[in-house]
Amino acid sequence: MSETPQPKAPISVFLVDDHALFRAGVRTELDSITDEVRVVGEAGSVAEAVAGIARTKPQVVLLDVHMPDGGGAEVLRRVRTDLPDVVFLALSVSDAAEDVIAVIRAGARGYVTKTISSKELVRAIARVSEGDAVFSPRLAGFVLDAFADRPGSAPISDPELDLLTPRERDVLRLLARGYAYKEIASELYISVKTVETHVSSVLRKTQLSNRYELSRWASDRRLV
């Protein structure tokens, strides 16, 4: 006698957006149209998101790109190391290339705009939870151009990376590879004091606090 198949458990979802009305709308829509997903929490800031994701350990985080205290990429940087199994899907009003690339470089599995329908959003959540990458149609080209390294592909700017001078990038690249300050100075034919000045400038511009965070930041942007 065959066993009756058990119903599939819903995908746990955490919402991150600084607009409470938008979060409420998404939660209501998801709750009303499907049993495939279950909203387990929400947050309106980076700090709230980091704490809430750590507490609820959702399968998928719907992540806004722009928030007053840092945005989606900052949430990713703070969460990914400790919770590598959590999948992030950016859900943003922005369809700018630099926003798409920044959050994908930080570790998001997909990027859809807020014009997406409720049913399409449920499908996108299900797909990223299963390991697929999901993008709104016109956004996929940005990602291909940024990561394919093919002739003629348009360079995609990273606003945070663009803040650094070429010399600061050189110092950061060697720092991320594990070089000591003295070794960096020797490699670049500059003084240790100058290396320290460049590192301080990079820390200030990236708003990071230590060498470990800088190394991870550089790795996310493929500088290493």
TrEMBL record:
<dbReference type="Pfam" id="PF00196">
    <property type="entry name" value="GerE"/>
</dbReference>
<feature type="domain" description="Response regulatory">
    <location>
        <begin position="12"/>
        <end position="129"/>
    </location>
</feature>
<dbReference type="InterPro" id="IPR001789">
    <property type="entry name" value="Sig_transdc_resp-reg_receiver"/>
</dbReference>
<keyword id="KW-0597">Phosphoprotein</keyword>
<dbReference type="InterPro" id="IPR011006">
    <property type="entry name" value="CheY-like_superfamily"/>
</dbReference>
<dbReference type="Pfam" id="PF00072">
    <property type="entry name" value="Response_reg"/>
</dbReference>
<protein>
    <submittedName>
        <fullName>Response regulator transcription factor</fullName>
    </submittedName>
</protein>
<keyword id="KW-0238">DNA-binding</keyword>
<feature type="domain" description="HTH luxR-type">
    <location>
        <begin position="157"/>
        <end position="222"/>
    </location>
</feature>
<feature type="modified residue" description="4-aspartylphosphate">
    <location>
        <position position="64"/>
    </location>
</feature>
<dbReference type="InterPro" id="IPR058245">
    <property type="entry name" value="NreC/VraR/RcsB-like_REC"/>
</dbReference>
<dbReference type="InterPro" id="IPR039420">
    <property type="entry name" value="WalR-like"/>
</dbReference>
<dbReference type="InterPro" id="IPR016032">
    <property type="entry name" value="Sig_transdc_resp-reg_C-effctor"/>
</dbReference>
<dbReference type="InterPro" id="IPR000792">
    <property type="entry name" value="Tscrpt_reg_LuxR_C"/>
</dbReference>
